[in-house]
Structure formats: C-alpha cells, structure tokens
Amino acid sequence: MVIPPAILSARGVRKAYAGKVVLDGIDLDVQQGEAVTIIGASGSGKTTFLRCLNWLERPDAGTIRIDTQVMGRTGSVVATERVLAAQRRLFGFVFQRFNLFPHLTALQNVALGPRRVLGQGREAAEARAERELRRVQLGEHMHKRPSQLSGGQQQRVAIARALAMEPRVILFDEPTSALDPELVQEVLDTMRALASEGMTMLVVTHEMRFARHVADRVVFMADGTIAEQGTPEALFGAPADPRLQRFLRHLEPSA
Predict the structure, then answer these.
(1) pTM of the model
(2) Which of 30, 106, 107, 121 is spaced 20 to 30 Å from 43 by Cα?
(3) Euclidean distance between CA atoms 173 and 93, whole angstroms
(4) Which residues have C-beta within 8 Å of that of residue 197, sequence separation ≥ 6?
(5) Whole-number Å distance between alpha carbons of 128 and 125
(6) pLDDT tens digits, one per residue of 172-219
(7) What is the C-alpha to C-alpha distance for residues 72 and 88, in angstroms, rounded to an integer?
C-alpha cells in the first residue's frame, strides 16, 4: 500500500530558551484526516512543539511543512511576515483560554477572521460563522456575548472560530484545562465529532479517555523528545518506555 505524503511534517525541530533545550530534534508526520493526541508530563515540550508548528514560536532549527509549503520559507529564502501570516492561516489554533472579544457576540467573534483576514463581506462572513456555530451545537446562542456563555460554550465558539478559517489542520492546546469538570465533556464531544468528520487534528491533552477512545495515534513526549508513539491500544495497553509507564501509573484513576 502506498502511503500518501503527510499533510503536516516536522523534521529535526529544536527550540531552546536561555540555553535550556525544550525541544531536542522532533520528527513527526500527520496524515490528512488523522487525529493525533500528544500526552506527557508538564514541561515535556508539548505546548512549545505545538506553537512551533505554526511558527507562533520560531524553531531554532528544523523544518516544518504543511501541504507543499515550508513554514517560514519562500523557496530558498526566508519568508516575509506577510507570507508567514498566510502560511499560518493553514492552521487553526484553539488555546487553553478562549481569547474571545468580550464586546462581540459569538457570531461576530467567529465572523471576524473571515472578514478581516480572508476579506469576505459581512453577509458571507456571518453566514459562514452561523454554519460553524451550528456545527458545534451553538445555533441558539450565536447572538450572545461571551459573558452570557458558559466556559464550555465559549470554548466551542473558539473552535467554531478556528473552523471558520477553513484550516488544513487544527491544533488544540489543552482545550479543556481551563474548564470546570462538568463542562469538559461538551467540548470533548465537539472534538470527537470533528474527528469523526475527518478533520486533521493535533491535540495536546491530559484527557486520557479522549486519547484512548478518539485518537488514531498517541504521541508521548518526555524531555523534549518523542519517547514513544503508536495506536492508543499499543501505548495504553503495552507501553514500552519506562517514563510512559510511570506517567500512566500516575494517571491511572482518570484513564
């Protein structure tokens, strides 16, 4: 069987802060339609890697390619900020905090990107925003402001905002960590639905149930490297790396 080229590919990605190595030569390929979760202890480099993929953090070394484009490059030369901004639009990014504009409604928050970044007219942008809000089960709440929404609803608005830009890949950075426990499931259910639709997703998470039951592949990071990766059945059923074994033992009650 011929494996198609990865939609997202990282090779030799390195990053250090004040001489401390945070990412130590990461290699990772993600196929179109694949849902990949990244797990690991705090400080293992998960969030930094996610932010390096779309150059919110610039890697010190390595290459990141999405589709046919190399991030930060135009052919053999360094990309201008304008080109880099266009490359970043190939990614959606859902943060821990929702980062919604408090004075705008859910509809306006979601329509803002298509209007200002994609240059759509107001009517077209709001039609797209309405479609994506209905996709995340918020059709009845689109005219509410963030203060009128629960944390779970606000995070789903943030997901709709990412979807409205029609990205090739969505990056999720601990999307449930800022939520009260009773609100976590509604966000995970939304992400589960996107995965079932074939959305390409890379998810940093501590939600082991999601990693176990939704992900196509689980990546375990430790000490700035990918220590082990494979199917959920393999990683959770027969972990090989001692660090992964210890990590899972600590999380066993919630896994």
Answers:
(1) 0.93
(2) 30
(3) 8
(4) none
(5) 5
(6) 999 999 899 889 999 999 999 999 999 999 999 999 999 999 999 999
(7) 9
